[in-house]
């Protein structure tokens, strides 16, 4: 997402170099959405993969988020006919005959999840999709979806600053044998990042006023432990998410080739039980201030229903 203008101006040539740097480190998972740059991100990935073996890459694609010419979002369309239409255009932009994981970006309140998952299941049978995923949905929706077809994973925000999935969603995923793709593991740069307020950060409550000051102070508490482990704060935060279980895969975005090696280095960071307990003391659950999205977007998240 960051390679298609979400956090400020982006450069396509630099974006391709970032993707190559990631693949050169041994990375395999590329997570995108057809609404990232209104198709731009998928076209960028196609360009990067032209000299690569397609079968060595796992393409995870989100669909359904509608955008206008001004870039504003206009709801979600996850009707079966729309599912097939969105995939057709994604395959064209990506230059491939299949995607490995296909998931609605958000729950469409007007369409039963059973209908959406059933449509993707047909695409799996036809060979256009390998696995079915979900994104930002609650425990009940996950159960309903899993009753129709096998669900590979659920994409959810999960970090030291965002841990609500631990209450119901993560236990249900583990009960059903469904993985979690964790995004926002650095809380959009608040933890160990530049923390600039360009792009989507400008509307994030966590980046506003007193919330920002409080959250910056929270993240700074990790500095000493990170130094003791010869790691950066970002590496520490990524490794913490990975340490929550083998069924959790952190997804981290990079905008420059130099960031890739640094973030990939998080795989070498491990924790003792005492260190994990210390991190819990440094950043207690629920201590971050501000919602992870503006109120009007939070209201649309099925994963937040019943919590607000």
From TrEMBL:
Keyword annotations from UniProtKB, A to Z: Oxidoreductase
Record protein name field: Predicted oxidoreductase
Keyword Oxidoreductase included in the entry's annotation: yes
Keyword Oxidoreductase listed: yes
Residues covered by the NADP-dependent oxidoreductase domain: 1-282
A Pfam family matched in the record: Aldo_ket_red
Highest classification ranks of the organism: Bacteria, Bacillati, Actinomycetota, Actinomycetes, Streptosporangiales
Organism: Nonomuraea solani
GO MF term (any one): oxidoreductase activity
Signal peptide: none
Sequence segments annotated as region (Disordered): 287-308
A cellular-component GO term for this protein: cytoplasm
């Amino acid at each position: 997402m960051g390679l298609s203008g979400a956090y400020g101006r982006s450069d396509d040539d630099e974006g391709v170099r970032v993707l190559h740097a990631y693949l050169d480190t041994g990375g395999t998972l590329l997570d995108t959405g057809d609404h990232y740059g209104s198709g731009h991100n998928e076209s960028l990935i196609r360009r990067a993969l032209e000299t690569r073996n397609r079968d060595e890459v796992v393409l995870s694609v989100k669909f359904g988020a509608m955008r206008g010419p001004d870039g504003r979002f206009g709801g979600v369309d996850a009707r079966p006919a729309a599912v097939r239409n969105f995939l057709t255009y994604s395959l064209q932009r990506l230059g491939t005959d299949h995607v490995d994981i296909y998931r609605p970006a958000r729950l469409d309140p007007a369409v039963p999840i059973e209908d959406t998952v059933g449509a993707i299941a047909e695409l799996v049978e036809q060979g256009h999709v390998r696995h079915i995923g979900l994104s930002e949905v609650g425990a009940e929706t996950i159960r309903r979806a899993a009753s129709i077809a096998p669900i590979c994973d659920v994409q959810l925000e999960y970090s030291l600053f965002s841990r609500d999935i631990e209450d119901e969603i993560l236990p249900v995923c583990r009960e059903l044998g469904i993985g979690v793709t964790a995004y926002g593991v650095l809380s959009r740069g608040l933890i160990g990042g530049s923390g600039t307020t360009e792009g989507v950060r400008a509307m994030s409550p966590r980046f506003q006023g007193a919330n920002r000051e409080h959250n910056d102070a929270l993240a700074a508490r990790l500095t000493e432990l990170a130094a003791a482990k010869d790691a950066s704060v970002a590496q520490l935060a990524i490794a913490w998410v990975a340490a929550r279980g083998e069924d959790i895969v952190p997804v981290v975005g990079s905008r420059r080739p130099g960031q890739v090696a640094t973030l990939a280095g998080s795989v070498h960071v491990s924790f003792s039980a005492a260190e994990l307990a210390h991190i819990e003391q440094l950043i207690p659950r629920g201590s971050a201030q501000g919602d992870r999205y503006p109120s009007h977007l939070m209201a649309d998240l099925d994963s937040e229903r019943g919590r607000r």
